[in-house]
Design goal:
Number of strands of chain A: 30
Strand order of the largest sheet of chain B: 8-7-6-10-11-14
Oligomer: heterodimer
Largest sheet of chain A: 8 strands, mixed
Structural class of chain A: alpha/beta
Strand content of chain B: 25-35%
Largest sheet of chain B: 6 strands, mixed
Low-confidence stretches of chain B: 48-55
Number of strands of chain B: 15
Amino acid sequence: MSFANPAGAWALAGLLAVLVIHLLQRRVPVRPVTTLFLVEPAALESLPGPRWDRLRRGLSLWLQLLSVLVLTWLLLDPRWLAAEWRVRTVLVLDSTASLSAFRERARAAVVRRLAAVPRERADWVVMETAPWRPPLYSGTDAAAAEGALARWSPDLPGHDFGAALEDARHRAGRGGQVLLVTDRAGAWPAGVEVLAVGTPTDNVGFVSGDAVVEAGRARYQALLRNHGRLAAARSLRVGEAAPVPLTLKPGELRTLSGDWPAGAERLTLSLDADAFTLDDTLPLVRPAPRPLRVRVAREAAALPFVSRFLAALDAVLLVESEADLTITRDTAVEGAALVLPPAESGGGPVREPAFATRHPLVRDLGWAGLAVRKPAAVPSQPQDEPLVVAGRRSLLLLRTREGAPQLVAGFTLEDSNAARLPAVLLALHRFAESVRLGARGREQANLQTAQVLALRGRVEPLDGSAAPAAAAGVLRAPTRPGFFHVRDGDEERLLAAAHFADAAEADLTAASSQDAPAPPLEAVARQAQQSPWTPLWVLLLGTLIVADGWLGERRA
Amino acid sequence: MSLPPAAPWADSATLARLRAEAEQAALGLRLPLRSHLWRGLAGTWSGVGRGSSVEFQDHRPYLPGDDPRRVDWRAYARSGQLNMKVYREEVSPAVELLLDVSRSMRLDPGKRERVLGLALFALAAARRGSSRMRLAAVLGAEARALETQELEQGLLPGAGEADGAREEPQPHLPPLRPGSLRVWISDCLFAAPPAMLLAPLAAGGGAAAVLAPFTAEEADPDWAGSLELQDAESLDRRLVRFDARRREGYRQAWSRHFEAWRQEARRHAVAFGQVATAGTLLEALRPALAAGALEAAP
């Protein structure tokens, strides 16, 4: 048997307190009398103030002493160890990219911790802080748990550990322990033991990069930062060009730019490798939006707004058929469309102010200035979703016809100020881009590692490495810098370059170590074996207190 | 509860003093025997019947066969007619001395001596009046006849007993002889209505007197501050805080209690006299004399 809370023994001081109280109380003299029946009932009262009556030594004193003893026993929280006890240890591995600089230190520290535990008494769970990644191992084999470390890949941007730690505590249960392996000591939630394996480390790397195309001419741009405390010298390679020496002062942020190599679809900037390698490479692709095939119906082509609108869109191909988006005045159009109906016959001006819903197409835009002299003739359908309303009239609604989205205007461009209102242009632009996402064709873009992709399909890294698993149907860019495709069936939907862009993770100067000795496993196991008699002790304590109180009431 | 065995209520020196005091008091004071017409054996008190007593009561005409010694010759000389003198019958009154031996009567040493002294006085007064006395000790519902020798030796139930047992505060009188003089010696310190005791005391055509001893502390205690009072008989304990106002309330309760006893005693034609424990027995009995519970000796 052991006590989970040895400090509870201090409650025994209550015995002394009870005895002192009883001893200090002045005895009230007892007078035998023959005329007690003549004493007024009002004279019978409890005694106030500092002149205490000594409570009768006897049952009350012993009840109070016994109460103190029972309370002490409860506070000590005795624990007994079951014969076949085991302790579950949940190893939570920090999956953020900064750990990649200390991966070997972390692996060695974990192996030491595994070796210090009696293997026949331990259960293991190895998991990562990324909640969408499944546990690496769960079982009783310490060797297998050690082997699971090889599958640990700390390459994610910074994220909250709360969900993972909560899951770990739940998996550990009351008798288990949670060990967080990370690179920084500090304040962590209660019940989580921390194994910090970091050391302050200097690092130089790319913090962002992109390529821009202006007037048909492409250029690359990149930001380079020295996260360290000392000046750093590195060699920069741009594509196949000769390395260029660079020296950056501590904390310096330098912009790099240059012409995109002619005819090249892809370009890679690289630095000398250091402790943190994820930001030493910056892959880029020449950006190219997915073309948007647009058919403008004849009746809509006459609207000056339409040409201005199309000029504001990138990569627009005007087609007569198989369009991704149709701009028309016909409300009966099939497929994705931007519908600008004619004026409603006999319609009067819309006097109510316009309000937008929280739909992503129209939120955070200023619609109050929309003035409609004549509303458009829009036959309503049951599944229409109002986006902008004025009174009981929809000025802009989203319709779905056979799975294709249609943005239908409830105003006429000729009889309103919509063509001049930025909110209208932006909403239509958002709609066109949303249609573009589902359009055929390939897009080329520069993304960040682990970035969520608004596409369906599968991610295929060009270097042949394993693609990141899609958690809950969400596609993500690879977690390591490189080039990758996204294919939906046979169709290539995206050619992209993913680069590491989390500057906070790249700054390793605050990394630190913390390795408290592990508590004996037996002590951990004892903590779980709470006495089954505790409720009875609590009941006994309550009974003693009530009995003592009743005794005092009866005496009074 | 049964009566404890008899034990000395006083040491020999105190007993001798009390007996002397009782005898001395009995010279000047009597039990209230003259105030009642008694029935009983032949004795020195006037009875209710007509008998050969020396006390002339009335005349009646002479009838053949009457005792010629009782002819009123002076009346014959005046009237020329023979008349007979009629005299009250002489009786020897029965006296029942009932002694409350509850713990309240013997708690205080002075009160215990006064109780014993009262009992000895009653015995001495009864003897001087040629009365037949029955002596009984009463404790709660129990009563036991005592021999006069026991009383003369100061042996009464209760003394020397360890005060651990509860006693019933209110005494219950045993059956009494009709037409007797009942002398009840009790402090009357119980909460029951006085009628519950005075009614049976006065019943049966006799006369009754109550001698109620009390101490000065009982009438006017010097209680102050916080006390734990324990009733001498029920052994109940109560925590009490006394101040001047509460003491005054107690004194008033004491006065009301014994005023109720006096009123109820008058209603039942019982003489009620309180007897203090302070002073000599003779001095202490004067209030009882004034109350009619005693008579002055001729």
